[in-house]
Amino acid sequence: MQMKIEQDDPRLTAYVLGELSPKEAKQFDHAIAGDPALKLAVQEIERTQSDLLKMLGSETDTLLPKHRSAIMRAAREASGSDKIVSINPQRKSFSIWTWPLSAAAVVAATMVAINLIAPPNSGNSGGNVGNGTDNGLGEDYVAVDNGGQSQNKIGLPLVTGNKSLTQITRSIRDAGNLPSRQDVRIEEMLNAFPLDAKGSVALFQGNTLGVEVVKCPWSPSGSLVFVKIRGAKDKSSKLTVEFQSNESSIISSRLLGFELEQNDRQRKDMPQQLSAGQETMVALLVESKSADLGKLVWSVNGETAPAIDLVSNYEKEASSDSRFASLICGFGLWLREEKPAIIDDALILALAREVAAESLVADRYDFLELVDQAVKAKSN
Question: For 29, 86, 179, 356, which has the most beta carbons within 10 A of its beta carbon?
């Protein structure tokens, strides 16, 4: 049975300050993750704590006690002991590869890296969120469809590129500057990593759709819907995949990526053929007044496959892939300066801290370093 916590519970302050026992802290983690009002209350306490630290001249450490405690707990649980092993990675260039590191070592190293991130110098904290109708996106993020559809019906692309992250990395690491807006393509950033959507999987004629719905970190009424489209292993197939929202409760829905000025061309040129074994990851941001977001409707070679219902369930713990994908989406919007009062330095650092408290393979650890460097480049 889940712990019941009120917004004025004094233990929330103890939670933020890292003063709860590991057992209580975990209970609070689960309760807060499933309650947007509690999450906002915690963000308000964190913002107050951060302001106090600034007033006292302690701006160099962006980790609040709760965050440090969470990372230390994760490291101890991963290693099975109280010893934290430090490592000093020397990789300078970006590369996509999957060398698994020991959980304790990588968490310790990431804690050091995140500790070195420069504090935000502008914007509001991540707790300053918009109202229920604010989806946190700029006007140039629109539904991409197969022609003449409203935002309540969004056709999903079967194929995307994956080069944007390389361009972003070159700008930040080689030139020391943030990339240009047009170089930041969220759909390509997602597909630069081997990610899965692990909520549910549907199979039809050898093709699969993996779906996972998680809470949007920057919107109280928003859900991020991650969809992994995977072609049959032995043959190419003609697919159509469409998101159909629940019109009675929908506020807005957007496919992250694909800019407005390119929408007409993309609508005409969107491939419908999926090669054997080809994989694509896409992300939707859906604002809704209820847990029923809608459904995915898809077909293979002209035959209709069973639809997949999309329901938000924040009681269920998000997978490590979806948490990392959420960081990618938030970082992409931050680089594009979309809604800077909401998606600001503090929010991106908070998302990075959450990912840091996990076992990481090398490409994800490298991405955390890139986030670190991007925040520093912005502050310079």
Answer: 356
State the pTM of this model. Answer: 0.62
Could you give the CA distance from residue 132 to residue 283 in angstroms, rounded to a whole number?
A: 20
Does CATH number 2.40.128.110 belong to domain 153-329?
Answer: no
Contact 321, 331 (CB under 8 A): no
- Alpha carbon 33 to its chain's center: 15
Tokens of 323: 């948490």
Determine if residue 226 is left, alpha or beta; phi over 0 gives left, psi from -120 to 50 gives alpha, anything else beta: beta
Contact by Cβ (8 Å): 215, 316: no
- 3-state DSSP call for residue 272? coil
Compute CA 113 distance to the chain's CA centroid, rounded to the nearest angstrom: 20
Neighbours of 354 (CB within 10 A): 18
Contacts 24+ apart (CB under 8 A), 88-96: 89/365, 89/369, 91/362, 91/366, 91/369, 92/173, 93/173, 94/165, 94/166, 94/169, 94/173, 94/366, 94/370, 95/363, 95/366, 96/192, 96/193, 96/363
Work out the angle at residue 233's Cα, subtended by the Cα atoms of residues 310 and 189, and round it to the nearest 5 degrees: 55
User: Coil, strand or helix: which one is 374?
Assistant: helix
CB atoms within 10 A of CB 158: 22
What are 84-135's pLDDT values in tens digits?
333 333 333 222 212 222 333 333 333 334 433 333 333 333 333 233 333 3
Residues 6+ apart with CB under 8 A from 47: 125, 127, 128
53, 109, 200, 255 from 114: Cα distances, Å = 17, 9, 33, 30
Query: Tens digits of per-residue pLDDT, 244-279?
Result: 999 898 898 999 986 544 444 444 556 678 899 999
CA–CA separation, 137 and 2 (whole Å): 33
How many CB atoms lie under 10 A from the CB of residue 200?
14
Helix, strand or coil, per DSSP, at residue 192: coil
Q: Which helix (H) or strand (E) holds 187?
A: helix 186-190
237: pLDDT strictly greater than 70: yes
331: region left, alpha or beta (phi > 0 left; psi from -120 to 50 alpha): alpha
Report yes or no: 64 and 49 within 8 Å, Cβ to Cβ. yes
